[in-house]
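Each lists chain and fold; for instance:
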Amino acid sequence: MTKTLHIIGGGMAGSEAAWQAANAGVPVVIHEMRPTVETFAHRTGHLAEMVCSNSFRSDDDEQNAVGLLHWEMRQANGLIMNTAQAHRLPAGGALAVDRDPFAADVTARIMAHPLITVEYGEINALPPEDQPTIIATGPLTSEGLGGAIAAETGQDALAFFDAIAPIVYHESINMDVAWMQSRYDKGETEEERTAYLNCPMTKDQYEAFIDALLAADKTEFHEGETAGYFDGCLPIEVMAERGRETLRFGPMKPVGLTNQHQPEVKPYAVVQLRRDNKLGTLYNIVGFQTKMKYGAQTAVLKTIPGLEDASFARLGGIHRNTFLNSPTLLDDQMRLKSQPHIRFAGQITGVEGYVESAAMGLLAGRMAAAEILGETLPAVPDTTAMGALLTHITGGAEAKTFQPMNVNFGLFPPVDAKGGRRNRKTRYKIYTDRAKADWAEWLGERESLAAE
């Protein structure tokens, strides 16, 4: 008999993983703690409940990476995308849904599938070795299961808050202002000695930045949100509130650096950015975790010299969010290296957003089903939105600075397109055309494998 796949968590990722595995012919049991055990964020007992926005973001599959992810999921008969389409609301170029009917429909489709069973109740321990399992418990993983995961992986490998610094596309940084240098030229290789990108500030520019930072709109912390967190990391606005010079003696200290464009001028303060992925397409602003609202955040950050025209792969934030240091813990099949019968999927792997979570569920479900059926899936091309996300969380990201990430073109291998920054529309179309061809080929290989 075919082994049963167990999936812990019935959110976007868990529901999609179950659908994909069951459609491959593998029996599935979804373990969902709601409504037996409630969370502060959920309102219903439905699977795939949308707890925040009702939007899956852009549906543009030619110019937007998340829209491309929509397209790839539809091509793979994705439950979440197909159901979303059935409950679509007018939202311009975005895919927004009527959230309650959407979740009710996902639940009904899951319940009607002959190979899927749903069991309600909390799971507090890791599964035995003879039980193939996907853990897709999301950012609100229960205390018991979170503790079991932490005991297996090590406390430092499982975070309960994300402290996200803004991430900038390298191509949008003005290198006529910024320069590459590590503080005090530290490092044994040239790559190490030029590991940081530096943006200098004069005294007037620094004072204007502090004024803008203090005046910016911020989101409020919820009760308990700061517990066990602030000992290690403070938002930049909290540091600025402690004194106007605090940042200049913290993440913006100017010591050990020489401006290559103006060697004779000593910067009053320096904002440093550090490479965030192996491709070198993304840079995070060091020490700039923040609770500024997104609109204010963009305006404030663009006052930094060199970032006037910055394009952001993601903005900063601080949230309650359980996630793994996936680049160190998971293999390229999303399996826990120390317990390979366990896969992880969804936000707990370090992706951010409904669509990205469901996408990782789609891949985990297919990979788990293939393994149970004795098949070997071809590698997912990193030129696709699915593959770019998978590569990022399983080794493409810098493990020391790993934080949750949305899908974006900075995760894809670069394309050779004429026009550079001035021809972004053409370049993005090259990315999506390449991805669609490679995804279609991958799906075709998978279907051929299943037919053998």
Notes: The chain has two domains: 5-162+320-451, 167-315. The CA atoms of residues 204 and 362 lie 51 Å apart.
